What does this fold into?
Amino acid sequence: MEPPKPLSAADYQAVIRSPPETVNDAHDFLDQVWQQRTDVSDNERMIIETILSELVTNVIQNNPHREVFCDVRVRITPQQLLIETSDTGDEASALRPDPEMPEGNAEHGRGLPLIYLLADDVEHRWQNSRNLWRVSRSRISEQQS
Amino acid sequence: MNFPVDELEPDLGVVRVEGRLNMVTATQLKDTVTEAVGTGKLRLVVDLTSTTFMDSSGLGALIGALKTARAAGGDLRIAGANEQVLMVLQLSNMDRILRPYGTPEAAFGS
It folds into this structure.
């Protein structure tokens, strides 16, 4: 994975190619973003990292037997945190709004509910043979707390 | 490669998870716990003091490890979780099943 490319003062992007890369490359990408963005709070960092880890994990897990490319973009403005991914994997299955947490013994199925709980808005669409995810969270409440 | 396991008591082991607990290391944790239970460590503490991050894959591995320990008549508890790990536990309502303790020693009251 190449170092994060700032599209502008607020945008950072990377491409994760799996295999050989893993979800750890998404974490490493964010570590480099944080070095450039010391204004992002610890709380915001753990929210972004959790959301991105779940998104990239889903892409890799849903495409276990082939190479997949996942473009990652993080946009940080004074008003909003935005995480976008675009992947070449199979079309993600139809999503229910506000998916529920599975029962306590379940070992899978918490990723998407976590994303919905952490975000203000979650969008997914299938376009040009790619899954496009757009997950956003307002920074206003963070700044006021 | 498994995570290191320290012995607090003959039947009580501490699994030390360093770094990220995610889909890359989930199997490593489950294998570590399965092996520890197989060698008689029926009480296990997963020490998360050096765990920098956990997502739902890591949480799933903890739940699988808990099931392994309980199926053998034992139990598994967690200790030393950071703010991010606590956030994931609370949002998923799993902090009621995997109650976080401050230290491995406190987890089983030893």
Notes: The first strand of chain A starts at residue 5 and ends at 8. Helices of chain A lie at 23-36, 42-62, 111-118, 140-144. Residues 5-144 of chain A form a domain with the Heat Shock Protein 90 fold (CATH 3.30.565.10). The CA atoms of residues 104 and 110 of chain A lie 10 Å apart.
